[in-house]
Structure formats: C-alpha cells, structure tokens
Amino acid sequence: MPIFPFREDLLRAITQHQILVIEGETGSGKTTQIPQYLMEDVRLHSRRNEIGCTQPRRVAAMSVAARVAEETGVKLGNEVGYSIRFEDCTSERTVLKYMTDGMLLREFLTEPDLASYSVVIIDEAHERTLHTDILFGLIKDIARFRSDLKVLVASATLDTERFSCFFDDAPVFRIPGRRFPVDIFYTKAPEADYLEACVVSVLQIHVTQAPGDCLVFLTGQEEIEACCEMLQERCRRLGSKIAELVVLPIYANLPSDMQAKIFSPTPPGARKVVVATNIAETSLTIDGIIYVIDPGFCKQKSYNARTGMESLIVTPCSRASANQRAGRAGRVAAGKCFRLYTAWAFKHEMEETTIPEIQRTNLGNVVLLLKSLGINDLIHFDFMDPPPHETLVLALEQLYALGALNHLGELTKMGRRMAELPVDPMLSKMILASEQYKCSEEVLTIAAMLSVNNSIFYRPKDKVVHADNARMNFTVPGGDHLVLLNVYNQWVESGFSTQWCYENFIQFRSMRRARDVRDQLEGLMERIEVEVVSSLEDSAITAGYFYHTARLSKGGYKTVKHQQTVYVHPNSSLFEEQPGSFTNTLTPSLACNCQVIEIDSGWLLEVAPHYYKRRTRTMTLLHKLKSDVGGKETCESSFL
Ligand code: CDP
Ligand code: MG
C-alpha cells in the first residue's frame, strides 16, 4: 500500500504539528492505516483517549471499521468500533471509533471540547458534506484551547490547499500515489438511456476485453437493482456462451453482509462487476478494477428556498467526480474508462467541481445544533464556504415557526428538547408535539418507520401484482403516515414475525431496523421526559410538518404559503385519491412527497397560529371548483 513507507515520516509530522492535512490518492491507505498507526504509537496515543475518524457515509464507516478490526485481529465493537445514527457498535474498550461526520457533530452537544478524544481525523474531507463543513469550523475553534488535541484532515487529491489555508496554513503531508494510466473513451453521441447503455457496455467488455473487474457508477438503489437484474437476465440467456459474470450491487441501504461481498476475490475465469453509487468514487476501494463505466450522473440534494423543500435529483456529476471515477480503473494496472457521454459534454456541460452541500441544503438541523452549542451569531461562523444568506434566514424562520427559537433568535425550551433528538427539526417537533396530543406511541412508530421508509415495501419484478395487492391491503383513510403505522402495528400483532413480512411483501430487515430506531427514540423521550402514551391523533404530525402543506386547487396541489406547485409521488396511497370536502395537505418527509396525509385545515391554525393567519372570519367556508384533472368535483377551502 502506498502509505507503508511513510509511516515514520507521517507519525513524526503528526507529533510536530497540531493540525495536519493529509493528501493521498484513493486507496493509498489513509482511512484504514493511519488510525492503526496512531493506535500503535505511544507518543501520540495515551490509551485513555479515543481516536475518532469521521466518514461522510454510514456504509463506509461500518465497512472500514470491520476491515480494520479484522486487520488488527479484534472483534468489531471492542477496540475498534463504529458509531452511526441509531447504531452504536462500540464499547468501553473502544480505542478507535469510525463514525459518520453527523455523529461527531452530535457529540459536541454532550462534550463541547471533545475531551474524550486525543486525535480526530476528518476523513474524506474533499466530499465537503454539510456535517464535515460544520465540523471544520467547530474543530478549528476547539483546537485553539485544546493544544493536546491532534487534528488530521484527510482528503483525496483535491482541494488540499484550501483545507490548509482554512486551518491557518496547516502543513500538507502528501502520500505519493502510484497510478497506472487510464485510457478514456467517450461516446460519439449522447446516450438516450444510460441504464441500457451500461448493461450493453458491461457485456461488451465482458466478451471482448482482457480479464479484469468492472465498476459501474449509477445514481441510486433502484437504478442499481434494475441494472443488476438486467445483467443477470441477459447472462442467463447467453448461458454457457460467455464466461461467468459475478454481478454485485453496493449502495447505502444494502444489508451489510451483502456489502461485504464486493470485497471477496473474483473466482478464477470469472469477471466481477460492481454496480455502485458514488460511494465507490472515493470512500470504498475495491481491488482488481480495470474497467470503469461512467454514465456521468449522480444524485444530488437540492434545496428550493422558496418552498423550503429538499429533493434528490439526478444531475450530471462534476468533472472532478468524473476524473475520480476514471482513476478507479488504474489502481492495479493500466485501465480503461468508458464515459457514456460525449467529450463535448464533459467539457461544456459538467461543472468543474461539485458544489459543497452546505450551499444546496436545508440548514434547519445544523442551525438548531449550533444554537444548542451556544453559537448564536451564525452569520460570522467560520464557514469554509458560507451558505447562501437566504438559506440561513429560511432555516431561522423555520425554526422560529416550529417554536424552537424565540423572536430574538434564541433557543427556546422546545428547541433545546428538539435538539436532543437525532432527527430533522420537523420530525422532532412532531415527536414532541405528540405529548400534548397524547399519541406519542403512534408518533414514535411513524417517526421510526419514516426513517427507514424507502425500503419497507418489497416489490419483486416477477410478483408485482401480488406485491401491489398486499400493499393495498394496508391502505387506511388519512394518508401514508397512517399506512406506515398500520403496517407496524400489524407486524407487532404478528409477534414481529418474519413469516408475516414474507407473506405481506414487507421487508423484514427494514422492520427490524424500524423497531430498533423506535426503541432508541423511546429511550431518548424518557431522557427528555416526554410521556409515551397512546391515541390516534393526526394533529401531532401536522404540528411538525405544517410548514409543508399544500392544498388542492385548480390544476393540482399548491403549497399553502408560497403557491408553488407540488406533486404527490406515485407511491403514495393518496396518489389517485380525489379529495373529499376538506383541504388536502401534504406533509412530505425526506426528499419527495412520498408520504402525505390529509389534514383538516383547521388544524393548521391550531398547531401554528403564528404561522398561518386566518384570512377571513369564516373558517369553514368552502367553495366548489371544477377540477381540471378527471373532471371530478373537488373542493377548495378559502380561508387560509
Ligand atoms: O482511505 P484511502 O482511500 O486512502 O484507502 P483505504 O480505504 O485505507 O484502502 C486501502 C486499501 O485497503 C485498498 O487497497 C482497499 O482495497 C483495501 N480495503 C479492502 O480490501 N477491504 C476493505 N473493506 C477496505 C479496504
Ligand atoms: Mg479513505
């Protein structure tokens, strides 16, 4: 590994400097080796204190921890462990902890000077996730008075000068990479269907090219699963005419035993194809890759400051990303990268680098956290790249509307309690409001189900009709949150049965995770002294999500506050539903409007009187409209 010869130099540099930026090609050993060096080095590491290493992705934290535990011959969770949201795999004995950047951020709440750490490694710094960016500011600040704390900022070969500059000209330690040449091929014309193009390219490589494994970059779970299925199907049809093709997916929600498979060696005579999200761009290194297929897209969070809604959209990746992807082909030998776009598109349609997340996301969560840490002046926080002013203002406004901040922008008692829960402000408000409505049992379940929601219903390609019928059976009036509640409650009644999940096309693993999350949230509720009681009351959900409400008017749904058009996701149980006589309200969770419920507009005035004002005196005045869609009669209330 490229880092091996530099062990002593590196350790010396770390002894000499408090903050060190480490730059090295992906796969050079930064993540797996440096923490081990530190563990072994008595100069740097007193056994009392922990070494923390942050990762932007959950999967990376888990898989790297597992790898290092194996390399050091300890059981995962003992000396080497990991900590990600809702899952703590550490113990009293843990010396080296891999964790998501979000987890370290939350640790500031309980330990503002990170006293239990002797070394903090901010890894994958080039990813510039929101949490990593905030960590930069906070850690730079505490390093000033904790002279015993060592800070390492590790990054792929991108942007390291900027990190050095931000950390008061901290020295940069470069690990020289060896990289084999990678030939890059472009398509002559743009591809209409990049998924199909990927499948064809893989098969072409498999049939025409010399041995060597293949890595395909797609944007998310659905695409990856589709691609894997298509590949397997076509290989089945070709039968013994072609050599064995081992097709392996990797994405964040993939169960960890499946994730581990990508690292197992390819059987002789076969070829391995790993179909990955951009997690394989820099966070995970798979040995033996010679061919890379890059359609040039990634899923990116984008934030609409007008609607206050976040969405994940598939966009062209940056040139920096494309080059990282190509680089994955040249680690073990000369490689080839097939770009499924034109050379012109690379030059003219792609951005130079990816915009840091802090500039395209909702800041509600982070603002609440910073306020809880007593950082009131956010405008002057030491951001590496400051967020847009209007996003910051909107976050403050939203927290004010939720009752987390008072009119002076100071944290309220509600805000302090909200910050205790490791979920988005709207979700935490929903949970806390449930106390007042005496329905915390139900709301906890809904919150837990929302946190795993994208993978509850199982819909295999060959049993689509059965799966959809099974799903329909869970439909209850009111909307998706109540459907989730219904699913969970029935599962509880079945005695948490695996068989029941199987028969109802429900993913057992997701349910088990939901139960875990629910238990943990319940524990936190006790800590902040919220009584957990039961009844059925939708207002609590509205109390959290009133910000995201829409009503049906001519032609479709428009947000109540800003009149932006929004759509109900086809997966929603309300997708085809024509509304009854009340305002319909959407409470989108996560990125799209997958989860919506129907609400009574009166509730909005009840839960957020400061936010929604009564326009006319008559609250129940309804007038009829002819709807454009389907010609059915629908109603619109006119008072908000
Ligand atoms: O962090 P950096 O990109 O510099 O490298 P690393 O993640 O520490 O990986 C170093 C080496 O360990 C690579 O050759 C990986 O392929 C290997 N590795 C592995 O084989 N299995 C894992 N689960 C993790 C890393
Ligand atoms: Mg790494």
From TrEMBL:
Query: Among its keywords, does the record have Repeat?
Result: no
Q: What EC number is given for this enzyme?
A: 3.6.4.13
Q: What class of enzyme is it?
A: hydrolase
Which of UniProt's keywords are assigned here?
A: ATP-binding, Helicase, Hydrolase, mRNA processing, mRNA splicing, Nucleotide-binding
Gene3D superfamilies the record matches: 1.20.120.1080, P-loop containing nucleotide triphosphate hydrolases (3.40.50.300)
> Biological process GO terms, please?
mRNA splicing, via spliceosome
Q: Which domain of life is it from?
A: Eukaryota
Q: Name one GO cellular component term.
A: catalytic step 2 spliceosome
List the molecular function annotations (GO) for this entry: ATP binding; hydrolase activity; RNA binding; RNA helicase activity
**Domain named Helicase C-terminal: residues:** 201-374
Entry-linked InterPro entries: DEAD-box_helicase_OB_fold (IPR011709), DEAD/DEAH_box_helicase_dom (IPR011545), DNA/RNA_helicase_DEAH_CS (IPR002464), HA2_WH (IPR048333), Helicase-assoc_dom (IPR007502), Helicase_ATP-bd (IPR014001), Helicase_C-like (IPR001650), P-loop_NTPase (IPR027417)
- Provide the reaction this enzyme catalyses: ATP + H2O = ADP + phosphate + H(+)
Asked if the record carries the keyword Hydrolase, the reply is yes
> Which residues are in the Helicase ATP-binding domain?
11-176
Q: What protein does this entry describe?
A: RNA helicase
UniProt source species: Neogobius melanostomus
